[in-house]
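Lab notebook: predicted structure, single chain.

Context: the supervisor wants predicted structures on file for every construct in the current expression panel, including those that have not yet been purified. This is the next one on the list. No modifications to the sequence; it matches the entry in the shared construct table.
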Amino acid sequence: MNEQVKILCVDDERNVLRALQRVFMDSDYEILTAESGEEGLEILKENQGTIQLIISDYRMPGMNGVDFLKEAYRIYPDTIRIVLSGYADIASMVEAINEGHIYKFIPKPWNDEELKVTISTALDHYFTQIKNKQLTEELEKKNKELQQINEHLERLVEERTADLRMRNRILMAAQNILDSLPIGVIGVDPDGLIVQCNSKATEILGLDEGVIGLHKDEVFDENIRSLIERLNADGKLSETLSLNGHRVFIRGVHMRYDTGQEGDILVLDTEVNGNGRGD
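Prediction complete. Output recorded below exactly as produced.
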């Protein structure tokens, strides 16, 4: 134990107080004495909860030991309370235990060695209680912090969910717009993954729905793959091909954004006149 142990001895007989001081003369305890319950309470208040253990006589004039310890418990409930008594009144002992929350009764006259052992055990009990209390408070604090973190995360999840819902609505609206166009639109990212392919593009190329997310080499024929390779090299292209029974005018551009993103966009149009729509 690192903190200074203070023991308050309360008895109306000075010879008893001197005897208690002699018992603990060779110890590291700081022994405080009071000759009445009232004086004992004043010492408790002056020391502001730094007294770990109280040894009090049971029968004292004025405020008796039970009343004193009852008040001591109310002010500083963690303090260990021990009663010295020369009386074998069982009813009084029960009252003292119930009212003053007594740790132990020690009869007068006491055995010095037994008293030392009792005090040492009582102090171990005190510091164990204090440690458990600190751990409980720390656990409660951590639980509150965890609860606050969980509440914060829940709010973030709600905000992100709302944001994702809005983005999904925007993406769905964009997809609907693309699907309503009379021209085909294909988007391919730098890794060759298809990130856009509207309904008209699947119709022109004779593809199944649901190609988004697949690799271009799994989906497109040699003509389209070759166009994408040229587009990566040249940055743009404009060409007319015969695809899936259609004469298709194709315009492509390799897009680069300030964010660092890039990709290839192909626009496919089957409504081609003699000169081609793109001319």
